[in-house]
Task: structure prediction
Amino acid sequence: MVLHIIPIMDTVNITIDTNVIIGALKSQKGASYKLLMLLKDDVFLSNISVPLFIEYESVAKREGLIENLTEKDIETILNYFLRKSKIQKIYYLWRPILKGQKDDLVLELAVKSQSKYIITFNKKDFKECEKFGIVAVTPREFLAERGLL
Result:
């Protein structure tokens, strides 16, 4: 009898920065969009907090920012993201760490959720996250590392 061992990729916790969500909403051609499309496959676990979700929504609904989608389209996509993500409660016990207040919002969620990655286009804003064992990567870098490109 021959046993075939199929490697199982571990499900990794991630936290997604607002700029990646906006990138995915603006274009279906990039790694941000592919990342969001992979939510359905459960190959990673995206984490969200109420304050970060509110930021996603407020930025996405800025007039003229996302021209190819209606407000209802944006709400539908963000609600799907919310359903596919794990909601974490954040208690704001140790701010500030990073230069940007909104970046601390992302870092706090990543720490709370034990995320291995913060997916962002602004890696330089998250240099301090390495102190917490979290790596800031672009969507393309994350997908490539996980063999998902």
Observations:
- Residues 124 and 136 are 8 Å apart (CA to CA).
